[in-house]
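Before a colleague's protein record goes any further, I have to sign it off. My question to you is simply how this chain folds and whether the tokens agree. I do not need a full report, just your reasoning and any doubts. This is what I was given:
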Amino acid sequence: MSDPSTAEPTDLVVGGQGRPTHAPVHSPALVLLGWATARALMALVYLSVTFAGRTLAWGDLALYEFWAGQIRTTGAMPDGVTWMYPPLAAFVLLLAGALPGPYGTGFVVLMLLADLVVLLLLLGAHRRGTAHPAGMWAWVCLVPLLGLISWARLDLVPVVFAAAALLLAARHPVLAGVMAALGTATKGWPVVLGLLFLRDRRWLGGAVVTGLAVAAVSTVLLDDSWTFLRNLVGRGIQVESPMALPWTVQQVLGNPVDGDFVNGTYEVLEPGAGALARVATLVMLVTVGLGLWLSRHRAPALRWYVAVTALLATSPLLSTQFVLWLIGGAAVAAAVPGPDGRIARRSLPVVAVLVLLTHLTFPLQWGGLVDDGVLAASTLLARNCLLLMMTAWLFVSASGTASSPAGDPVAGTTSPVAEDQGADDRGAASPARDALPG
């Protein structure tokens, strides 16, 4: 995999007071302009161009509005097996409804703000001179490639919390733990962050106390707060998951695949799918654990990127919006200075292709996929094979002895001065207390 930017942050130079200055290409104004332009173009395409499957991108907004109405009027979580979210997700839906204007508009505005917060976190780390600019530019460019679904699903919220949990860990460990707990209380998967900071009592303390507080408040304020756990049991193999690879190949070869909507997702109903679904979660946990173990000497942000990639590659469920988790992990890991961050930066072109193929699969070719179309299945096969290959590459690249520059022992970071002096793995860097937690 080629590195679009193999050089370390040459825009960081030491001024008269030892403070980094930034080249114009990475100025906050230009980065924010790039972000706004990319989002405006994405919205313009979806609102002005008619194409197959366009409305599928924001189809869940009506469901979110319905759920928010149920929660508001009944004081309980939505009934039905399609509700599979931890308690804090309910409060996000209610918050969107409290904003002025139509519900869908309020929700999109809320997600747009979440999108901006991730960028500001990355931009703040860069302005402190402790982050490679590839991280913020990756976020600017990759999110629009997924399409308007980025703003029409809940997943940007846990991405914000997960990014904050990593980017604040070195300077504000308690707050970082709080962020991780809030992310987990919104959509579950950020719980893996706890495995990266088991030795940091302040980080874990913030996470545990916040998690208990959210659980207590949710239980008191909303009935049936924990029914989502029951709804997660017995899920099958979603057609878009790499776990469905045998049946994707079957469809590419022109043979129809039996599938239908079950519990809100389109699942494979072929012989053997049920048996695979019963062991799929174990396979996923083992694979994520292996990735964390192989990368145990690396910076936390790179380990997080490895874990999220492995999670998506082996999960029995893989909806389009889940790819936002991968984009967030790639952006934060790419911001890490030194060799650990370079591994993530080398993967960015592959991530871009993967995101585009995901966008093609849903919503653009979704009708063909569920109607046994060969072209749509071929797109999905390419996406899933690419995801599996990238996971294997990350496992190999992140294994072995730590190669990050000297710096904060938790964050795995270095000072910008050492970066410019080429002290990547000679241990010559002085610790940067405002360092990006990598």
